[in-house]
Amino acid sequence: MTHFGNPVTLPLQRTPSPLPVAERWYSEKRLGGLARFAIAITVLNIFGHLFLGFEQSWATPFVALAAAYGTDLLAEAFDSLEQGRQPRFAGDFGALVRFLLPAHISGLAVGMLLFAGENLLAVAFASSIAVASKWILRVRVAAEQGRTPPMRHFLNPSNFGITATLLLFPSVSIAPPYQFTENVSGLSDWILPLIIVCTGSYLNTRATGRVPLILAWLAGFAAQAAVRALLHGTPILAGLAPMTGFAFILFTFYMVTDPATSPSRPSGQVAFGVAVAAFYALFMEMHVVFGLFYALTVVTVCRGACLVFASAKNLCAK
User: Fold this and answer.
1) Residue 148: strand, helix, or coil
2) 14 in a domain, yes or no?
3) Sequence-distant (≥ 6) Cβ neighbours of residue 224 within 8 angstroms
């Protein structure tokens, strides 16, 4: 290679090491995983309102999506203006669809899991705060030497939006778990959860690599149910009963395993899953309802604090 007529010898570049699972998810696998998840949750919402027995009004998912889309588009517009670049949703319709996939998932998840009655403002708030948390609450994560550490959100958006809304809107509750199978019976009671388990297992095996987290979470949940049964002399089946619910299955395969807000290393995944189960048990002992969502929020906040500490430590070392 020459530069202005003078020969220039370039040093051999080191072949970059393979990226960890989390980095692969953010590159080649992220879009495919998001697209499959977006399709799955869209189909579930349509079938839920048409056949399964969703208790929310038909306006709920549309309000949730409008709030999620609007928040994400507005945040990206301001961010691109501040950085002097083209917005990621600009160019063609495909770019817009790809950009809105995460907001689409968060909006439908919030609308599906919350029950706000006629208070659609609470639904819009939940969707907006869920998407906004990805833009506001970010930390730097470890990167390969020579690369600029990227900024990533550490809170599960849908879970955080649900948690904030439950705390700020006393009239809002979680959608009743029976709504997912209210209008089905017989063999369908088994087929529908089996579909979610199979698709969730495939997604977390091939795309996210979160199988250790799932196993640790399930084992931790069963263990805390057994411990509470021994402490209080209650039937252990009462503590294990939530594991048979459709909502618990969705939480297990599609919320607690969010690859952007959970560890990528197997050891970290195991600790993460056990921690969520432990905080759930703590909330149960304190007679706090909605413990699943609060437990996941607490653990992701703790993980975010650890990431901040690790980033600061690396900066100080340099």
Assistant:
1) coil
2) no
3) 239, 277, 278, 280, 281, 284
Last residue of a domain, one of 119, 152, 176: 176
- What domain range is 223 assigned to? 187-318
Q: Spell out the alpha helix ranges (H) of the chain.
A: 21-24, 30-47, 59-83, 93-113, 120-136, 157-168, 188-203, 211-232, 236-240, 246-254, 266-285, 291-317
Q: What angle do CA 229, 181, 114 make, to 5 degrees?
A: 75
Same-domain check for residues 214 and 167: no
**pLDDT, tens digit, for every residue of 46-55?**
999 998 889 9
Residues 6 or more apart in contact with residue 40 via CB below 8 angstroms: 199
What is the per-residue burial (b if ≥16 Cβ within 10 Å, else e) of 14-42?
Answer: eeeeeeebbbbbbeebbeebbeebbebbe
- pLDDT tens profile 65-81: 999 999 999 999 999 99
Answer yes or no: do 166 and 274 share one domain.
no
What distance lies between CA 292 and its chain's CA centroid? 13
One domain, residues 164 and 36: yes
Number of domains within the chain: 2
| DSSP string for 37-93 | HHHHHHHHHHHIIIII---S-THHHHHHHHHHHHHHHHHHHHHHHHHTS--TT-SSH
What is the H or E stretch that residue 173 is in? Answer: strand 173-174
Q: Which residue stretches of the chain have pLDDT < 70?
A: 1-30, 142-150, 312-318
Q: What is the DSSP string of 237-253?
A: HHHHGGGGSHHHHHHHH
- pTM for the model stands at 0.84
**Considering only CA atoms, which of 236, 111, 116, 247 is closest in space to residue 173?**
116
Shared domain check, 140 and 52: yes
- The C-alpha atoms of residue 254 and residue 237 are separated, in whole angstroms, by 24
